[in-house]
Amino acid sequence: MRIPYFPGCTLHSKAKGLDDSTRGSLAALGIELTELPQWTCCGTVFPLAQDNYIGMVAAARILANAAKEEGGKLVTVCSFCYHVLKRVNYVIKNNLEARKKLNDYLEENYAGEIEPVHPLQICKENVGLDAIRDKATRNLKGLKVACYYGCMLVRPASEMNFDDPENPTIMEELVSAIGAEVVEYSYKTTCCGSYQILYDNDLVMQKVEEILNSATAKGAEAIITSCPLCQFNLDWSQEKILQKNAGFQKIPVLYFTQLLGLALELPQESLGLDQHYVDPRPLLVGA
Amino acid sequence: MAMDLSSKISRDLIERIKEISGQNANLCMQCGTCSASCTGREVMDFPPRQVMRMIQLGNTKALNLKSIWVCSTCLICTARCPRGIDIARLMEALRVINLRQGREVLVAEKIPLELLTEVPQMALTSGFRKLSA
Ligand code: SF4
Ligand code: SF4
User: Fold this and answer.
1) Tens-digit pLDDT profile for chain B (133 aa)?
2) Which domains occur in chain A, in start order?
3) Spacing, Cα A3 to ligand 1 middle (Å)
4) Tell me, what's the ipTM?
5) B87 vs A contacts (CB less than 8 Å)
6) Alpha helix locations (H) across chain B?
7) Residues forming a β-bridge with A4
């Protein structure tokens, strides 16, 4: 099965490990991601001002281009890309005025036919968790994993229609399927502070400490996420937190696709495990 | 200080916020669910519930709050408001009124170099889209 794929701006550089491990693990599961022939940054954030159509143009163009490919779906894995593509698509589908304005601007005739999908959904709905269980030959038994969703995947529930907005479980189901142990904790859909890292660093440090402490208190040995910004905030901040609080316990923060790739026995070098601030390799591959 | 709801400045502000956000802040019953859930609450000067009250009253001080800039548009408040108000859109309206007048808080030169070179690209795009004019 081939599905058009939108990597987004960060996956060809700072989050290359997410790109490689997503393509690699889905390929191992029989899904080939074919990168859109032309794409730009999606704009990353969905404009919340009603009159800000220009903030939707980039995402609308990506969707309209994806509609020229076969299959009617567009895969994207970064939580921000998924959020903005899904919401702009929703607007184009349901708001005739917005549809007309965006189409006039782009000189397109796109009505929201594309279904933006996330690899977590592909794993569950297209591949199936049982098939993944069979293919996950590397034993991750005993590895305690906390799943972190953050804000963009699940909210607003009416438009994202992704999973339960307060208690999503799709990532946990995948973790169980590949044989690792799920750690339940309270902070999985709170926000890490997001782009506030650039403006109010303290806010992010505070949120990260809360999230990580809540996971490690429940025995988590690793955290997984699908968002390059969550990954960065949760990972990069740990050294700073440790400087202020000597009792702080560091924990590796990975992309869920890296864990999936390990379980599927993809070559370790292809997963970008060396690109994190808190090195996950001692825990995962005994390096 | 009591707000004079009839003052033209207040009425204009209420109207503009309504127009940009598409939300009716008058539905807010001041329960505080948004404040209790808010990601930025510890570093805000006024929590979302109080911002909602200022918007109801057309209090122009709402435009100068730190709160509107430390809102990370995480949508927890929006998801949980029992009155169905999309609070994040109201926060955005307050930012947007500032931004359209050239008032911004994120300035590239002020971002520490160690961060600027390390953050994922999407952080810069989203930060500048939300916090700079
Ligand atoms: S949650 Fe809604 S009703 Fe309650 S204080 Fe906040 S805005 Fe008002
Ligand atoms: S969207 Fe903004 S105001 Fe609402 S909870 Fe998140 S940070 Fe707070």
Assistant:
1) 555 566 999 999 999 999 999 999 999 999 999 999 999 999 999 999 999 999 999 999 999 999 999 999 999 999 999 999 999 999 999 999 999 999 999 999 999 999 999 999 999 999 999 999 8
2) 2-117 (no CATH), 129-284 (3.40.50.11810)
3) 42
4) 0.95
5) none
6) 8-21, 33-37, 48-57, 67-70, 76-80, 87-99, 113-116, 121-131
7) A34
